Amino acid sequence: MITYARMKNPKLLIVLDMQDGRLEKTKEFGADLVFNPGKCDIDKEIKALTNDYGCDVYIEVTGHPSSVIQGLAVTRKLGRFVEFSVFGSETSVDWSIIGDRKELGILGAHLSPYAYPFVIENMMKGNLKTDGVASSMFKIEEWEKAFDYATGNHGDFKVAFKFD
């Protein structure tokens, strides 16, 4: 996601995550600045960087309700909020932020079958970085262990199955 965003040549690519290890990896993949919302006031940081203006584009990829609320707060007037997540529960927001106060463009996005050829081609060419994302590889017979590691409790970003 970070390397694709970098391909669009943003003036400043800021990444937010609650896990410092993930933030370090995003720097390797092209993030200019990283912030942990658990350790700082994101609204204050973004406003300081943009002279109280806010983000032009906020892409929500966590699937956590607090990220939606945070994203709507830090997106500038007439900015764009992109929702890319799958949620485990309903999320409520103050819709007046979207219409009355900021006149935001809201875009829903998710992987489509048409995205895969682009992604595969650019991964093979090295344009989309993936080094270290799948931090543990498992044989299919180890599926229970793989699912345990996929929880993130062992510090993994993503896990994958290796077929011989």
TrEMBL record:
Q: Does the keyword Transferase apply?
A: no
Q: Which UniProt keywords apply?
A: Oxidoreductase
InterPro entries found in the cross-reference section: ADH-like_C, NAD(P)-bd_dom_sf, Zn_alcohol_dh
Domain Alcohol dehydrogenase-like C-terminal stretches: 4-113
Keyword Transferase included in the entry's annotation: no
Name the EC number(s). 1.1.1.-
What EC class does the entry list? oxidoreductase
Name of the protein this chain belongs to: Erythritol/L-threitol dehydrogenase
Q: Which species does this protein come from? A: Clostridium scindens (strain ATCC 35704 / DSM 5676 / VPI 13733 / 19)
Q: Which gene encodes it?
A: eltD_2
